[in-house]
Amino acid sequence: MKVERIFIRPPAGGLQQDMPRVRIVAGAGIEGDRYFGCHDEPGQNVTFIEAEEIEAFMADHGRPLDWSATGRNFVTRGVRLNTFVGCEFVVGAVRFVGVELCEPCLGLGEALASPDLPPAQVVRRWVRRAGLRATALTDGMVETGAPFGAA
User: Fold this and answer.
1) Which one, of 45, 1, 51, 68, lies nearest residue 134 by Cα?
2) What percent of the chain has pLDDT over 90?
């Protein structure tokens, strides 16, 4: 169980950036990410998604693998994220709490839509598979390859 990839999207917009490591600030999220310090929605500061779900979606629809396609911050491997809602967990040396499932929205549907796959169908496919919203409880650095585990 580990972190496969880490992404941020700068506050000014633009494409997601693949990062080898990021600094986490308790209660604020990932330094440099567009949602750093935002509190408009529960757990919006840090998002996780399973690598296996991205791989399955891309394979099912004949697309090349794009780890950044869902817009989540952390891509994990070997972790059933849905089981961490309401639970504390550790990524590297940083402690988080799973706040809620990161259910798909129209933005995700539009980003992954194609002529043969309308946005609504994309959204339906990602229900209960689109990841986890979390809040950082401690400060620290997280690197690609960091272990993910129960607290």
Assistant:
1) 45
2) 87
